[in-house]
Design goal:
There is one protein chain. By secondary structure, the chain is mostly helical. It has helices spanning 3-16, 21-28, 32-40, 47-56, 68-86, 103-150; strands at residues 88-92, 97-101.
């Protein structure tokens, strides 16, 4: 299938499902102008958004004649090695991918946050001591002012 055939397939499927461009834009998270371009001037469109639009309509886009599988496999291996080195693992579902820290990473982060919290508490403690000192000085000054006012 070439790009022009994809464009026609997108238009026909949208019409078959009786969706307006506005309705399709709302469910596919692309703009109405993108849908117009996909149906009329597909060469202007990004492949990623075209695939997203096709999937929203229930269509599947296959790319043939490209040895992407090998490249993707190599990239996955490199990514996995990098993730292992960083102490993370990747959870991939059919809808989204997320990175989850390992228990060791979480413990290290918690320890850092605990240390940061302790430093903040120490600083607050020092500020309270200073504030108490200032309050005591203020009380002494008030007493002196009252004495002078009585005289």
């Amino acid at each position: 299938m070439n790009l022009q055939a994809l464009s026609i397939a997108l238009l026909n499927e949208r019409k078959r499902q009786r969706l307006s461009r506005t309705q399709l834009a709302a469910v596919s998270n692309v703009s109405t102008s993108f849908i117009r371009d996909a149906e009329t001037a597909v060469e202007k469109c990004s492949l990623g958004k075209l695939v997203k639009l096709a999937e929203t309509l229930g269509l599947r886009v296959d790319i043939s004649g490209w040895s992407a599988a090998e490249k993707i496999s190599d990239l996955n291996k490199k990514f996995d090695a990098l993730a292992d080195g960083l102490g993370i693992y990747v959870v991939v579902s059919d809808k989204e991918a997320s990175v989850v820290a390992t228990e060791q990473n979480l413990v290290a982060k918690q320890a850092k946050h605990t240390a940061d919290a302790l430093l903040i508490l120490q600083e607050l403690s020092l500020l309270l001591v200073r504030a108490k000192g200032y309050a005591e000085e203020a009380q002494v000054l008030v007493k002196q002012i009252r004495k002078e006012a009585k005289q």
